[in-house]
Amino acid sequence: MSKGITSRAEDYSQWYNELVAKADLAEHSAVRGCMVIKPYGYSIWEKMQAALDKMFKDTGHTNAYFPLFIPKSFFTKEASHVEGFATECAVVTHYRLKNDGNGNIIVDEDAKLEEELIVRPTSETIIWNTYRGWVQSYRDLPILVNQWANVVRWEMRTRLFLRTAEFLWQEGHTAHATSGEAIEEAERMLEVYADFAENWLAVPVIRGIKTPNERFAGAVETYCIEALMQDGKALQAGTSHFLGQNFAKAFDVKFTSKEGKLEHVWATSWGVSTRLVGALIMSHSDDQGLVLPPKLAPIQVVIVPIHKTDDDLARIGQFADGLIAKLKSKNISVKYDDRDTQRPGFKFAEYEMKGVPVRIALGARDLENNTVEIARRDTREKQTISQEGLDLYIENLLTEIQQNIYNKALEFRTQNTREANSYEEFKKALDETPGFISAHWDGTPETEQKIKEETKATIRCIPLNNKKEEGVCIYSGKPSSQRVLFARAY
Amino acid sequence: MSKGITSRAEDYSQWYNELVAKADLAEHSAVRGCMVIKPYGYSIWEKMQAALDKMFKDTGHTNAYFPLFIPKSFFTKEASHVEGFATECAVVTHYRLKNDGNGNIIVDEDAKLEEELIVRPTSETIIWNTYRGWVQSYRDLPILVNQWANVVRWEMRTRLFLRTAEFLWQEGHTAHATSGEAIEEAERMLEVYADFAENWLAVPVIRGIKTPNERFAGAVETYCIEALMQDGKALQAGTSHFLGQNFAKAFDVKFTSKEGKLEHVWATSWGVSTRLVGALIMSHSDDQGLVLPPKLAPIQVVIVPIHKTDDDLARIGQFADGLIAKLKSKNISVKYDDRDTQRPGFKFAEYEMKGVPVRIALGARDLENNTVEIARRDTREKQTISQEGLDLYIENLLTEIQQNIYNKALEFRTQNTREANSYEEFKKALDETPGFISAHWDGTPETEQKIKEETKATIRCIPLNNKKEEGVCIYSGKPSSQRVLFARAY
């Protein structure tokens, strides 16, 4: 922690990159576009996984696992699906290396696969091919399955967590007897994601549906949650798709209904990924480093002893032991850092960089006065308080920090969401004060595309429960019945 | 559950395949050698993961994530490593598909990778290439990292869980300043595996080291745990490798020691996989289906109502609610199966097939008599007992079942471990009463290889803390100082 990082104002993108490195979250690997998620970064992802997994199970889902590879022929069965993914997929063509006789290890051309395998970019095709064997009757439905897995999309421009060739995610794939039930499921899971984003990540999100242009390849309707980052760019934080009968038809998955009729099954899929770690970083962190919501912080409280003598250290350690026991019994994760290789100031900067929500410093004078110095990461405020009831104080403080971080992000979003009533206003807003822009749109893909080309802003979503309002499209001047949400996006 | 499965005596291999299918554990996928782990099978794996993950963390390890792909050049840097894995690896050569103009989706030859990527069969190479950037000084050591991941080995003959082209596993990769510390780590993790096998899977294991022939490709020493299946074949249930400085040298990972000297880092790696699900199945199950140790059973207790009237069902349901609440407070997972689409007999057979440790049947007469009928899966004994203190009874019963399953497996192993003092005896034992055979061996790879070719038996391990005993090799007649453990193996 010898030096700080570039400030957000100076260079937001550079700030992000340096923060990810200095906070020990992730790094680029030797494999193009693939990242190494370092232990500290991975422990945040693990906390996300645990919370989400519980939410999925509480809504009736179970986990399963499907193959990493998808035969090329499956991949191409759903027309818009392959169109969406074909240009960025890793292809396995051989299954063996050999020594060429000169000591070089080369690909063995005798071990060429009859049919190429695609490393899954998403698993609808292999899963629906499997579901064909699982469904005969309405009694076999619904299937409510989730998978935690790695997927690969050969992105040309990558950024740690936000866009990488390989990433970790979960993908839910459900099968239903009716269209209505599938839509209900897609909407339920969107609400789970929104709940998770707001109550765990402390990131307020707009729930909405995507325009046809921005829909998942193969979906009838794509629901999404959209968050606003501190640089005013939007980030899609999760999607839930109503797939209609598209994949059931492509893979011939039928069931006999209660009425004895043979029908195609209805589908949903929904996913969030390690991208959420990127969203988390960019939503809350500051020029001193990471700011983590307590619910996802691997270490919630750190205790740093400030001592001159070994005797001081022993007494501080004794006090710390007692506090740690009390905090652990409240399920608060706490670290006591008595490393003698680093000074307190170094440790303070390190835990600030790593976003530990609460820091306690404790010296010999504190022991005499029955006090501790407590610093919260979110506001960077320090306070000297009594040791009396400290565990309860910390428990409440963590709750308060979680709420405060959310409120701050919500306030930022409110301040950076505005209406534009002309294309001039729209472009000015985008350039001067980026954020969400609520504007009328004529509903055509052509207009959407033009605006995107000219301004790099896309329609993030049509918010759910959108207010109907007569107006005219900012681009074409044609009539419009509602505003949609534009932004430049990650 | 309309019909049973082939008995073990009739055809053990067929019994296994049918059991895996009927108990809804896994199935073959459309991709050669890759399996679909179905929800019930996956939930057993999840329980294994949770227990192991806690054990890893309790011994100071953290999780991280490294790329799925390994550049071919990395893969070939450690000579014996590439030799061990090159003949069975999936190779990615392209990163795009395209439309050939005639409506066919083909591999885009313009998108050929400059360097082929290997889908990781194990991650030593990519991880040690990463560690080079993590280690400068002895202060950066040890690195105690684990990864939960999928890996691919292009096996030609596959069997669900036991041998599949893709499988799930964890791989620990640690880095140390001294040889002694690394050996200690490798031995510590072997003990973690043995503890897990015995106390969770209820599978007794022999702890040992592999002969050079059977060592991991790139290891200096391979520690292993070996279990005995009901057909008398051995199964390697986990390995822990002391890698010496082999990978540090191949990837130039050095550190400055306390004494200021530049030295290569010492390494270990250790892993267990979804293979353990196969070991679990084959160790305990019977001709009626799966037998699960309570600690890994996704459902520990099932309650089946036996009723004639709706009124009966309502009263049984009320009783079940109370019992479920009590069991849940003891962290016992319980399912109440009041499906009206199936008869009790069908349900009994289903839960037997799925290995649910305790089944409670409850009818109107039981309510009158204040009793329940309780059946344990392991012994298939039924008993009518009082409802008084039922939760405590069940809690104790689950502990007893866990222990009983282990004892049974241990007794089986004891009965099926014998000494052979001549090659004739050895071959006879193998054919008539397969199991572990303890025999003298001259310590040469040649003899080991000959015995393998002639009998298909391999040296499973040289047991740790092996008794020294003068003798002569059963094959060569040369002197030997200890017995080693042979078996035919999965």
From TrEMBL, chains A, B:
EC number: 6.1.1.15
Superkingdom: Bacteria
Aminoacyl-transfer RNA synthetases class-II family profile domain: residues covered: 27-293
Annotated localization: Cytoplasm
Enzyme class: ligase
Cell inner membrane as UniProt keyword: no
One Gene Ontology MF term: ATP binding
UniProt keyword annotation of Coiled coil present: no
Assigned GO CC terms: aminoacyl-tRNA synthetase multienzyme complex; cytoplasm
Catalysed reactions, semicolon-separated: tRNA(Pro) + L-proline + ATP = L-prolyl-tRNA(Pro) + AMP + diphosphate
Pfam families registered for this protein in UniProt: HGTP_anticodon, ProRS-C_1, tRNA-synt_2b
Residues annotated as transmembrane: none
Swiss-Prot/TrEMBL keywords: Aminoacyl-tRNA synthetase, ATP-binding, Cytoplasm, Ligase, Nucleotide-binding, Protein biosynthesis
Biological processes annotated in GO: prolyl-tRNA aminoacylation
UniProt-listed SUPFAM superfamilies: C-terminal domain of ProRS, Class II aaRS ABD-related, Class II aaRS and biotin synthetases
Subunit details: Homodimer.
NCBIfam families: proS_fam_I (TIGR00408)
Family: Belongs to the class-II aminoacyl-tRNA synthetase family. ProS type 3 subfamily.
UniProt free text on domains: Consists of three domains: the N-terminal catalytic domain, the anticodon-binding domain and the C-terminal extension.
Function, in words: Catalyzes the attachment of proline to tRNA(Pro) in a two-step reaction: proline is first activated by ATP to form Pro-AMP and then transferred to the acceptor end of tRNA(Pro).
Name of this protein: Proline--tRNA ligase
Organism for this UniProt entry: Hufsiella arboris
